[in-house]
Design a protein that fits this description.
about 5% strand; 3-stranded parallel β-sheet; 7 strands; two-stranded parallel sheet; about 55% helix; elongated; mainly alpha
Length: about 500
Amino acid sequence: MGILALTSAFSNDVLRVEVSGPDRPHLTIVDLPGLIHSENKLQSSADVALVWDMVRGYMKNKRSIILAVISAKNDYANQIVLKLAKEVDASGNRTLGIITKPDTLSVGSESEAAFMELARNEDVKFRLGWHVLKNRSYETRDNSTEERNTAETEFFDQGMWKTLTRSMVGIAPLRGRLSKVLLEQITAELPMLVNDIQEAVEVSEERLSKLGTKRATMDEQRLFLLRIAQSFQSLCKAAVDGVYTDPFFGDANTDEGYTKRLRAVVVKANKSYAQEMRENGQTRLILDKKPVGNAMQLKNMGYRTTKISRADFEDEIVGLLERSRGRELPGMFNPLLVEDVFHQQSSLWEGIAREHTDAVCKAVKVFLELTVSHLADEHTSSNLLRDVIDPHLEVDATRVNEKLGEVLAPHIQGHPITYNHYFTETIQDVRKKRQEKDMMKRLQRLNTNNFVKTDCDTAHCLNGMKISDLASSLASRNEADMDKYAASEILLCTEAYYKNQKKVKQSVTN
């Protein structure tokens, strides 16, 4: 609707004009503004978008009849309304084409023949066909309705237009045609309309039931809230226990149904947290070989953890060892160095843990909002959430963050300490595996012709090798550099302590 306004030339507001009378057809016609393609001084780009959205919105309504009006003054192939009609009604079942201004066509011209072909439904085809109207021109704008109808009848009684069926031309046949089309549309849509009405009734009844009984007095109000509280407690307990038999929980295959299954959501979040800690908990992943790519490339790829070879990490620890030298003997180290390396390796724990607790708090908040909305009407539920539940959630979230800080404090600030035998077992297992690996390398080096003795007796040989040579090789010292040895031990203890503390932290957080 075009309106006089300082901000916009168009509005979504509807101006309704009702015409009644004993001879008036039962029709509701929505006169939409013409489609505009570009802005000017009278209409902005927002007006263009508003008109297009408005037209599309009405045309998409499957219960509406589309009157696709085109002017004979322009080539119909250039008039976008036909394209829009095909988009929303591809089969043409509810579109009736209207041709206006046929009197502007030159008699006997190709344009007149083309529009005649269109009127016969031979080009752009609609199930409801086409209709042709001749309205007042600028010169005859002051003619009465009778004069306008007479002029229209005389026009369609001459030239090639007289070959068209009388029910396809003129304003009077159009009224009857539209009434018939509307009746057919109502007949076809009536079963669906009944279903829609029934669904609307069910929705209204559900909303009405949420309103509860009357509560004019204080006692009635307390009873109303008490019933909500009892149902609320029951649903919360079922969600925490994982018993989803109440109809409230709906279908688990839907997003809303899954969101209501709080225990399932939290368990899944716990699994994701455990996997994230396992894969990306350590600041640097220690590899036996030098990794491909540098740390910056890995960060850009989205990895929290960067990769480093064991030899490079031990070299870094040697530097730390030199800067932290105390009264230790060569090859020994200050236990506090394990603390420094561990704190560096576990620096990502806090961020990962807080992401997990935030996700759980958010899941709880969404669940509670759905639960309260299910039990009470919109007004009551919004008040309960704003005045009761949300303030408590904020307090609980603060407590969770404080408790998480307590759990993380020993790992962030405290010195390494554990009474778990898993720590020593881990060190022993790693040393055993390293020794086995080192011995295999030495045995492979021994298996050469340099150690094969053809003249040795059976008592002093094993598979052609002197046992004395084998024993001497296996007993040789591994690392002559005392700092390198100490760095290796520091890293070994740090890895074992990291594994031990990660197990403790995951069990506490879960």
